[in-house]
Inverse folding.
């Protein structure tokens, strides 16, 4: 009778997944001379489309752990909006299909190749820069992919630190030199990036003005952001006044603004900025364009910039990226950086996916645990 592994290999070899298992097939000849990963349960998709339609959970066969490889048992991995966009096929950078979903996460080293230095079984690691394929129980990748982190890090923060918090920190540091007492302004303040900006700014003595949507629950959202350290929180309708700067009180005019919404919400950020200020756009949730008055350019000399974390991390910035991640995890361990998440067992993937897709209204970030 054929073994389960042989049947799985045969099935995969005859399917579009064959490119994922060439090393496993070679084991028929070298079965007694190589280190193997365990089989891996993975969320896969063979074509782009609606994530709740095209994804399925399958078992992938063991693969060889080569001399420079590290086999990692995943501990947790989030479902990010960009993960959904990759599966839909609309994200600018995405893996070739068929593919395993997920882009960031944290895991524990299971085994290492003979030439691996600095990593040992039991170490906690994250892919840094992020790497596709984190929605699976075991991953085998080159040692250069993995960054060792402090095992005292809360697992949910370790698994989510590389996208949203890193975006917040990088934007605070890269565009304008900010000193204690300075002010930033942002829309989309209830997003995880927005919450991180508030907390990281406060940690450095920087004040924040925050703009949120008019919606049911806006009072609760305002209180939540205040508890995180926000100095001022306004709904968009509260800013329908001729001079928004009259709302600043004793705060100086902001030098830096962040926009992840577009449309009128972006215009409100621009209204707050001081002479020569800069607005950085990192998202466009409203799908509406940014409209800027001629006077904003001529008389206020405002600058408009864009930021995409993926582009920055693709420019040989691994060392800088990892140093910033360690800084962020330090803040998380201190309780100085926090945001709401829901931990969901990997076996309940499709339930977590439905929540991430908004089928049950606004939900915390979904984090798969393995």
């Amino acid at each position: 009778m054929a073994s389960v592994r042989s049947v799985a290999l045969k099935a995969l070899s005859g399917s579009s997944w064959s490119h994922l298992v060439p090393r496993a097939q070679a084991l028929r000849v070298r079965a007694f001379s190589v280190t193997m990963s365990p089989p891996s349960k993975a969320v896969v998709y063979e074509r782009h489309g609606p994530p709740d339609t095209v994804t399925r959970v399958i078992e992938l066969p063991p693969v060889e752990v080569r001399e420079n490889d590290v086999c990692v048992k995943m501990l947790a991995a989030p479902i990010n909006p960009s993960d959904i966009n990759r599966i839909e096929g609309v994200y600018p950078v995405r893996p070739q299909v068929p593919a395993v979903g997920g882009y960031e996460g944290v895991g524990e080293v299971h085994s290492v190749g003979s030439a691996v230095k600095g990593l040992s079984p039991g170490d906690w690691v994250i892919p840094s820069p992020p790497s596709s394929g984190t929605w699976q129980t075991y991953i085998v990748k080159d040692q250069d992919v993995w960054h060792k982190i402090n095992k005292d890090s809360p697992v949910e923060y370790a698994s989510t630190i590389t996208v949203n918090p890193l975006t917040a920190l990088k934007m605070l540091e890269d565009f304008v030199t900010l000193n204690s007492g300075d002010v930033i302004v942002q829309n989309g303040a209830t997003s995880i990036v927005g919450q991180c900006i508030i907390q990281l700014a406060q940690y450095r003595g920087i004040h924040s003005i925050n703009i949120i949507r008019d919606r049911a629950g806006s009072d609760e959202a305002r209180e939540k952001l205040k508890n995180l350290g926000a100095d001022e929180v306004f709904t968009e309708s509260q800013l329908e006044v001729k001079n928004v700067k009259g709302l600043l009180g004793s705060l100086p005019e902001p030098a830096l603004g962040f926009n992840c919404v577009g449309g009128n919400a972006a215009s409100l950020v621009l209204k707050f900025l001081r002479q020569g200020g800069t607005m950085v756009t990192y998202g466009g949730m409203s799908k509406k364009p940014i409209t800027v008055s001629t006077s904003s350019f001529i008389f206020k000399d405002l600058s408009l910039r864009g930021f995409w974390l993926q582009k920055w991390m693709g420019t040989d910035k691994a060392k800088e990226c990892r140093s910033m991640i360690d800084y962020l995890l330090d803040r998380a361990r201190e309780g100085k950086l926090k945001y709401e998440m829901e931990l969901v067992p990997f076996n309940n993937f499709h339930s977590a996916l439905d929540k991430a897709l908004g089928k049950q209204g606004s939900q915390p970030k979904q984090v798969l645990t393995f």
Remarks:
- The first helix runs from residue 4 to 13.
- The two ends are 32 Å apart (CA to CA).
- The longest strand covers residues 69-78.
- The chain has a mean pLDDT of 91.
